[in-house]
Amino acid sequence: MKYKQIPLIHHQYNAYEVSHKDFGHEHRGLIVVPNQSIKRIIVYLRGGKGRMGRVRLQRLLQFTSPNTLVIAPYYPGSNGSSGHDEFSGIDLRLTIRFIERLTEQFKVYNCHVIGFSRGGVQALHTALEIQYVRSVIMYNATISYDHMYDERPDLRKTMKRVIGKPSNRYEYDKRNPLLRMSEMKPTLILHGTLDRMVTVDQALVLKNMLYEANIEHQFIEYSMWHSPYPYQYEEVKGDIYRWIEYFDD
């Protein structure tokens, strides 16, 4: 892996853009490394597509703590990563490999995955595929592409091009982590009641499925739109850290 330092004026952290080659692709991501010993890794999986919702350093800094390495893979086709975003196709495989490579390099096998918006599907998949992921945090998050297709008419053209219509059950089912709910890791659901991009109905569906599968979970509602206001950052961060510290090794 190659590391390129990113300017960051902060005495506790350093930031890097990381690149690696896997599955025939040049793949990149952003990481924030604490100066103190690393106890855990938080993986942030963003929403959006292409330049919309791209990973930004300021977003990662919202999840930092003195003993936490925060990492965020880019999607293929954005931020200099090659390939095409396939909505949990090659992008998911590259995400998993990015996490595996960094855990191997830093020798830390205690991970928590945050999925924001569309990144929620990626987060659920990642938790299923990587054994040392301790928990999932679904943050105003989409729970399946079927739900996204239903709620977002503005995205249907893109989804038809990338995945096909929902009648193509093979493509949608293989991308649906809800079909493996009995294997899911402990899950924290954070959702804004004012969210119109991903409605709180999806959070309630996930909550009920976790309950039926007897998976440990917690559901917290906020008076929030799809993205929080700056004054809400600390409240959300506090809820996230109370959760992950409970599941740390």
Outline the fold blueprint.
Blueprint lengths: L1 E5 L6 E10 L2 E10 L5 E6 L11 H5 L6 E6 L16 H17 L4 E6 L2 H11 L3 E7 L5 H7 L4 H7 L6 H6 L12 E6 L7 H13 L4 E6 L10 H15 L2
Parallel strand pairs: 4-5, 4-6, 6-7, 7-8, 8-9
Antiparallel strand pairs: 1-2, 2-3, 3-5
Could you name the key traits of this structure?
single chain; 249 residues; alpha/beta; Rossmann fold; nine-stranded mixed beta sheet; 8 helices; 9 strands; 33% helix; 25% strand; Peptidase_S9_cat
Principal-axis shape equals globular
Task: State the domain count.
Answer: 1
Poorly predicted runs are none
CATH superfamily placement: Alpha/Beta hydrolase fold, catalytic domain
Q: What is the CATH fold-level name?
A: Rossmann fold
Fraction of residues in H or I helices: 25-40%
Main sheet overview: 9 strands, mixed
**In what range is the share of β-strand residues?**
15-25%
Overall strand count? 9
Secondary structure class reads alpha/beta
The succession of helices and strands, N to C, reads: EEEEHEHEHEHHHEHEH
- Biggest sheet strand order reads 1-2-3-5-4-6-7-8-9
The N- to C-terminal Cα distance equals: 27 Å
